[in-house]
Write a structure and sequence with these properties.
4 helices; two-stranded parallel ribbon; two-stranded parallel sheet; alpha/beta
Length: 152
């Protein structure tokens, strides 16, 4: 398995060096350890392709006033509030990746995807929950487990 890190980052602020490569790899290993039960973060090949930002775009860190001005780099981006559909999709994903659910259904994988589509008063959820192959004996066992997983 290989994880490739991309984008741009600030590697130095004034005279302080920031070890961006180590931060990226350490953060990935920690996230993998906490979220992917069957993946050893030390066995992954990490490829860091993060480029340095242009020097003139780092002035955001030097500003002393309380109002941030704009430059060509995003400092923070967000949107709120979430719609009820977005909230339900996020809560469904969190439930399916919760410790309680994984304890009850250890064959449930972590690469869960939830998509919600609301049309007027009708809401459809599409859920992709891969099963971990070490818990599956055969194709028929897979489909039986999958069917039983959603009955409980």
């Amino acid at each position: 398995m290989r994880i490739i890190f991309g984008d741009r980052a600030t590697f130095e602020v004034e005279d302080t060096f920031i070890d961006v490569n180590n931060i990226a790899i350490s953060a990935a290993k920690e996230w993998i350890k906490e979220n992917l039960r069957f993946v050893n973060g030390d066995s992954i090949n990490y490829q860091v392709e993060i480029a340095r930002v242009l020097q003139n775009s780092t002035d955001i860190f030097k500003r002393k006033d309380t109002i941030l001005g704009a430059n060509d780099t995003s400092a923070a981006v967000g949107y709120a509030p979430m719609t009820p559909t977005e909230t339900l999709v996020l809560e469904t994903e969190r439930f399916l990746n919760s410790l309680d659910f994984k304890k009850r259904f250890p064959e449930s994988g972590e690469d869960i995807k939830v998509m919600g589509l609301r049309e007027n008063n009708k809401l459809n959820l599409t859920i992709a929950d891969p099963l971990i192959d070490m818990f599956i004996e055969s194709e028929s066992h897979y489909f039986r487990k999958r069917k039983n997983c959603w009955k409980k």
